[in-house]
Amino acid sequence: MTSSDKKDEKKNTKDGTRVFKKMCLDGKISTYIGTREFVDHVGHIDPIAAVLLIHEMDWFTENKEYKVYAEITATFRYGRDDLDVLGINFKKDLYTDAMQVYPVKGVASCTTKIQGKLLKKLGSERAFPFTFDLPAGIPSSVTLQPVKNDTSSKPCGVEYCLKTYVAKDMHEPPDRKQVVDLLIKKITHAPDTQAPQPYIESAKNFMMSPNPLHVEARLDKERYIHGEPIYVHITMGNQSTRAVKKLRLSVKQVANICLFSNAIYKCTVASVEHDLNVQPSQTIAQTFSIRPLLEDNRDKRGLALDGQIKSEDTNLASSTMHLGGGGQASTQNSIARGGLEAMVTLTKALPIANREALGIVVKYIVKIELFVSMGGELKLELPFTLSHPIPEHYEEDMEPPPQPTDANADNINLELDETGAYNNTLLSAQADHDDPLIDLEAAPLHDGGANSSTGETAQPSLL
User: Could you tell me if 181 and 454 are in contact, meaning their C-beta atoms sit under 8 angstroms apart?
Assistant: First the structure.
């Protein structure tokens, strides 16, 4: 065997599924989770599947009054956390759910392959799977972009937190040293089926002109992936007596903040201009392109972005695919047909409690502006959907686990980094069977490291 073959073999043995681990400060429990991004497919939402690992089982045996609980919370933060004074918090819980993980009530079962792999490697005596099923219609993770280079406070927006803690009762405030907080985020994936192409036509008459300027515009498709160019096809029939001199093409993000009252913010995320010279009685058909990117909008405060975990890079916020309870995708089609006015009407028609639960509703439109000689202009708008593709390995990781058939599943060497230093790296490991390895990457800490007020710590490791 050559040296290159040995390198390839070594590289293949390290390939596996990356999961995240975080341990509480006193070392009693840890939480393992396969992904920190959960996809909303409009019809259903990925389950939040995690595994609890108890390190000090003897302590729980001696103190039987203590239990381990898990809680998932969606929070809308509308003010800086450094302004939280006198017990006033500038945040509102939009959704919360909790369960008892240990001692197990009934039979604990795995809902995904990741949970099944973790149980085989951690041992079913100390590892306990738990799953949260989110209801349709809850908001996606959205962050409002703060001032550039401002890292002194958490940004405003909607965030999700998965918390596991040790307490005597579910509603009892836990000791901060016995709490594990994991920030997660919910992203939107639009259905694979494409909606009809956005299309609009309009005509405008000008003074002293017997015939109008007629314009037709359409997009090449209705759904776009982040970073994908948008192609706008424009057909123009100029029967007026004025010449069309310039075309301005822009993409606008419309964010409706549904808290207490509707507040609508518009922000241009991409803009291009083209010089034209369409003379009277002339007809043209031309295609223009535009690409909305976050890289071109880093300095715009208040721009809606997809939820961030610590300081990781993100992108523009995905389009909201449904409004209100029930998670009906038809609402998005209504918005697409009616434009901005339809979004405002639909959100105002909801009861106040349901409207606040929407969080931040995001919509995108392509705005077309034609400027003619002697000061006239014609404006058109085409709505579209901006979303994510299906993540890699999504279908495999979200499948139900197979029945265990490997008799050597426990024959694994476990290596942990006990240095206590957080470096966000992957360590090496060996397995004595063909079951896929699981790479274990530490979840990022809040600013301040293990001594922060959140009371959490993390160890990078690999199973």
Answer: yes
Q: Which residue has the higher pLDDT, 169 or 429?
A: 169
Partners of 253 in the β-ladder: 267, 364
Q: Sign of the C-alpha dihedral, residues 443, 444, 450, 453?
A: negative
Interatomic CA distance for residues 296 and 250, integer angstroms: 13
User: What's the token pair of residue 265?
Assistant: 């913010």
Kindly report whether the global pTM for this prediction surpasses the value 0.85: no
Strands 37-40 and 179-188: parallel
CA dihedral 160, 313, 455, 75 (to 10 degrees): -20
Question: Which residue is listed with tokens 């093409």?
Answer: 249
Q: Are 131 and 49 in contact (CB under 8 A)?
A: yes
Amino acid at 166: V
d(CA 242, CA 368): 18
Check: CB of residue 113 under 8 Å from CB of residue 135.
no
Tell me the average pLDDT across 224-242. 92
Instruction: Tell me which residue has tokens 């290596």.
Output: 415
Torsion (CA) 318, 324, 327, 329 in degrees, nearest 10: -60
CB 371 within 8 A of CB 204: no
